[in-house]
Amino acid sequence: MSEIIQEVNEHIRLIQNTDGLTFGTDAYLLSAFVRPKKSPVAVDLGSGTGIIPLLCLARNKAATCAAVEIQPSFCDLIGRNAALNGMTQRLSPLCADVREIKADTVGGEVDLVTANPPYIAPAGGARNTTDEKYIARHEVCGTVADFCAAAGRLLKHGGRFYCVFRPERLADLFGGLRAAHLEPKRMTLVQATYAAAPSMVLVEAVKYAAPGMIVTPALCLWEPDPNHPEKPAEPMVQTSDTAYIYENCGFPPRFTGENRKP
C-alpha cells in the first residue's frame, strides 16, 4: 500500500491510499451540496479516506460524524486523517457493512447521512487492478438501494440524506430512496460545460417528506471551448458557479431553493 499526504480544500491535510480512490470532484461537490443546519449529528456511508465528513466538519455542517467503511485499512486511514486534522473528538471511524448497520450501531438515529456509493454493477465494466478500487467503484459490498436503505434506518423523521451518483442510474437511486421512505426533494445535474452530457447527479432526500422535488439548473463546471462547446476551454477556467462553490463549500442560492417565491 502506497500513501501520499496532500493539502486539499478547506486546508485539510489528507492521507490517501493510492491503491484506492483518491479525492475528486464528486466528493467535494457532495460536501458543498449539504446545506448547513444547526449542529447535526451525521453518518457518512462508504467513507473511504473520510474526506466528505472532514469537509462537512470543517465548515460546521455537522457537529459530529461516524464514518462507516467496510475495508479495515481505510477505516484506519479515517482515524489517522481525523487525528492529522485535529478532529478525533468529532470524527469516529466505524468498520461496518452498510447492509447491516442500524441506528443502534451509531448510538441512535441521526440528522444527516451522506454517501458517495459505488456506481458500477458487479458485472459492469472492467475489474480494477486493486481490490480497494474495485470495492469503491463496483457494487460488491452494497448496491445503491442498500445505501439508501441504510440511510433510511439511520435517519430521524425529517432527517436528510445527500448522495452523489451517476445520471444514467437515476431510476435505481430513486427506487432505492422511495423504498427507504426517503423522498427526493432537490436534484442538481453536473456537467463539464453547458453542451456536455451530465456526468453526475446530486440528490437531497428527506425521510418521510411529502412528494415534490426542486430540479435546479444544471451545474456547469468549466467555461467551454468556443469551437467545441462540449469540451472545456484551454486553459481550463471555472464558471462563476464553480468558483463560488469552491470558495464557500456551498452552492449559490439558485441551487438551494432559498430564492424560491413563497
CATH topology: Rossmann fold
* C-alpha termini separation: 54 Å
The number of distinct β-strands equals: 13
Strand content: 25-35%
The CATH class label is Alpha Beta
Computed CA radius of gyration, to the nearest angstrom: 18 Å
Biggest β-sheet description: 9 strands, mixed
Class from helix and strand fractions:
alpha/beta
CATH homologous superfamily (4th level) name = Vaccinia Virus protein VP39
Mean pLDDT, all residues: 92
Number of helices: 7
Order of helices and strands: EEHEHEHEEHHEHEEEEEEH
Uncertain ranges: none
CATH architecture descriptor: 3-Layer(aba) Sandwich
Number of domains: 1
Shape field: globular
Task: Provide the helix percentage.
Answer: 25-40%
Secondary-structure blueprint of this entry?
Blueprint (H helix, E strand, L loop, with lengths): L2 E5 L5 E5 L7 H9 L7 E5 L5 H8 L5 E6 L2 H13 L6 E5 L14 E6 L15 H7 L6 H11 E11 L4 H10 L2 E10 L8 E8 L6 E2 L3 E2 L3 E2 L2 E5 L7 H9 L14
Task: List its salient traits.
two-stranded antiparallel ribbon, single chain, 13 strands, alpha/beta, Rossmann fold, 26% helix, 262 residues, 9-stranded mixed β-sheet
Write a structural description.
Helix content is 26%, strand content 27%. Strand 12 and strand 13 form a beta hairpin. It is globular and about 55 Å long. It is of the alpha/beta class. It contains seven helices and 13 strands. The model has no long low-confidence stretch (mean pLDDT 92). It has helices spanning 25-33, 51-58, 72-84, 131-137, 144-154, 170-179, 240-248; strands at residues 3-7, 13-17, 41-45, 64-69, 91-95, 110-115, 155-165, 182-191, 200-207, 214-215, 219-220, 224-225, 228-232. The strands form three sheets. Strands 3, 4, 5, 6, 7, 8, 9, 10 and 11 form a nine-stranded mixed sheet that branches. Strands 1-2 form a two-stranded antiparallel sheet. Strands 12-13 form a two-stranded antiparallel ribbon. It has a single domain (3-254), classed as Rossmann fold.
